[in-house]
Amino acid sequence: MPNIENPHRHIPMMFRAQVGGRCQLNYINQGESDIDRWAKEWVERADDIPPQFSSQVQTKTYEIGWRFVTNGGQDDGVIRPVMGAQGVPFYPGSSMKGAFRRACNVTQRERYCGKQTSNKDMEPGILRFHGGYPTDKRWQDKLVDIVHPQQGWQVQSSQKAGGAFALMSLYQPELCFGISSTIPLAQEEWDSIWQLWSQALTAGIGCRVSAGYGQPKTSKVKPLYQTQLKGQGIAPKLLDGSAEFRPNIFRAALRGHALRIFGGLTSAENAEKAVGQLFGDTQRDGGVVGLLTMGFETTRLKLGDFGRGSWKVPTYEVEGKLNWFLTQKSLPTEQQQALKNFIAYLTRFAMVLGGFGRSWRRADHRLFYPEYYDAGSKGLIGCHWQWQENQALMFDVKVRKPEHLSRFLAEVQTMATTWLNLQGLPVTPNNYARNWREAWHPDKVKIFGYVTDGDYSEAIEWLHGPYREAKPALGIRRGSIYKTSITGQMSKIGRLWHRMYPVIKVVKDDKAPTGKAPFKTPNYIEFLTIFPDGTPESNDFIDFLMNHEGFQLLWPAQN
């Protein structure tokens, strides 16, 4: 045998032991990581020609709106898709049958998928599910996906935890699904069968569906709640440095806000249980499938960049429809209505006080503080989101004046309380999640605001410099929150949200069906949401805002 130095280097990454020096897929370093090489070797060895179904199989193709992954096992904790004999990823027929069954009523389920007989044997249904395959080579693009868990860091603790984790997922693939029947069927029945499969797709297929994975590009199923948004901000990077807009930012934001709101109404344990019921929980009771799944239909997307040199970051501008769907058809009507109300108000809560994605706690400095970048290259800060289209502007805008905020937040808590009661979880405002950094309770948070004159921000400069001059003779020792626990710093989340929320008025419009129409003004409501921590800097800043000529304390409401 020839003497080959380091013979393991001739073995594909897919077959190497997950140990140091051989293959460590979760170790992401500068340059090419092991997981990059794993993906490249997979693509090089996979068959270029997608599998073809026989002529006896009925087929339909669907586009996935964002990413898709099936759990074909793990290497070093990295989920990889199920692979066929030639290395082509596919969606198994058994998984397809399981998803199809959930979309059926009892009669349909027994006819198409089978039933248990009186002697406890299984009587097969008439349908055979052949799974789904990519229709072309697009599945080979952007295979390495990055996940950043944020909940524990941003809501429950001020200490950074978790990090970036990798998995293999297909980016916007077109999949061809196959179904056959053991008996001849009329075309009308086949149409009904494919309609059921469309409903199953809307609930999501594969893994991580509650995070927006495995959703069709378009859906004919009526969502529980839908609204139209547009926004801009910092885009995430893939390992190769390319930008990607990730629709799961909406799910992450609303899950975090649900935790904050529940955390101010009940115990930490009950708050986490309620959030797991809504959005899913892999850690509780062996895994909980959430009641909600999300889909974002992108109508416009522009990826770009901002800055120079080491400060250069990818950016996005996006418009689209945000949809929330029920995963359980059997949910009682009363609970469906309560959940629809809560998810609508939760979305509005996110829009009123913050945004979505990276740097959501800050207003976009390009819009409201462009001079910040005059001194040279600096990192991009903030995002900006707006309601889009008349429906959202008329019905989702609940805060048109600063004084509307207190009533709106009371409504948010009412919707949350109703949902907790329906789930049998006690509402105990005096026994809330006190140890959480951002539990939504009057004792934990204060909100100040006022209407701006145009796009001028009074407070944005305070995030980077003094908000007043120190005057020791008057007992004013401090005058800055920069790099304190209030604004935060690298690797430590601050305790202040800054939002420039567009002011929308309702005006008379004889052409509108209701005689009224939304009107976008040039002004904004500037909100400062603060979670005081009792430090001198925090106390001084709160005292300053309480006596400010412009900003008013909006929540908790003053008696």
Describe it for me?
- This protein has helices at residues 34-45, 93-103, 106-113, 151-156, 187-202, 248-263, 268-279, 333-353, 365-368, 389-395, 405-422, 536-546; strands at residues 58-63, 67-68, 74-75, 78-79, 115-116, 122-123, 127-134, 144-147, 165-168, 170-171, 174-181, 225-234, 292-306, 313-326, 384-387, 446-451, 496-508, 516-530, 552-555.
- With 559 residues, it is of the alpha+beta class.
- α2 (93-103) packs across α5 and α6 (248-263) packs antiparallel against α7.
- The model has no long low-confidence stretch (mean pLDDT 87).
What features would you highlight for this structure?
559 residues, four-stranded antiparallel beta sheet, alpha+beta, 25% helix
Summarize the model shown.
The protein is an alpha+beta fold. It is built from 12 helices and 19 strands. Helix 2 (93-103) runs antiparallel to helix 3.
